[in-house]
Amino acid sequence: MMQFIIMLLMMLSQVPIALANPSEMQNLKGIVKASSMVEGEFFWIKGKVGEGRYYFTNPDGQQCSITVALVVGSKAEASIGIHSGTNIVIDVLNEQLSQDIQQGQPITSEAWQIGTTQNIEHADAIIKTGLNPEDGFIINSRPRWRSWWFDNVPQKVCQTYSNP
């Protein structure tokens, strides 16, 4: 019985890989992941704010990440409240978009083609989880004037992984 359960778990763990779009995986430049978001509603405005990480591979083949600030906004039903938000995952497919995120440039969803898992054709980035297609967002949302006084360029953390 235990062998059956282990085999079943092994087969199920491969399902997400099998369902991934091969062309999307081939073009993947990086992934934005934000898990500590605060969500709030104020009358007809709904928003999320928080920090996440952008994961990418540098030209030397090292796995790198930087901290990114993320702000999300949309229209909503009339309500007031603050609570923990859902995780956000965005796959980045465009090289220039990836470079801009790495350099700390503010990235607005309106300036790029943002797709969903059902609509990836010509997309620069794809919303995987945590956002609706009508949500607007900004990556690296901190004010640029702060960089005049502080070193506000994202610090990369890179590691080389070797196969055992």
Point out poorly predicted stretches.
1-23
Structural class: alpha+beta
Question: Into how many domains do the coordinates divide?
Answer: 1
Number of helices, where a helix is a run of at least 4 consecutive DSSP H or I residues: 4
Signal peptide: 1-20
Keywords: Signal
Could you explain how this protein is built, in words?
Residues 1-20 form the signal peptide. The chain has helices at 2-13, 15-19, 22-26, 95-102; strands at 30-57, 63-84, 88-92, 107-108, 114-116, 125-129, 136-139, 157-159. Strands 1, 2, 3, 4, 5, 6, 7 and 8 form an eight-stranded mixed β-sheet that branches. With 164 residues, it is α+β, with helices and mostly antiparallel strands. The two termini are 32 Å apart. The chain has one domain (23-142). It contains four helices and eight strands.
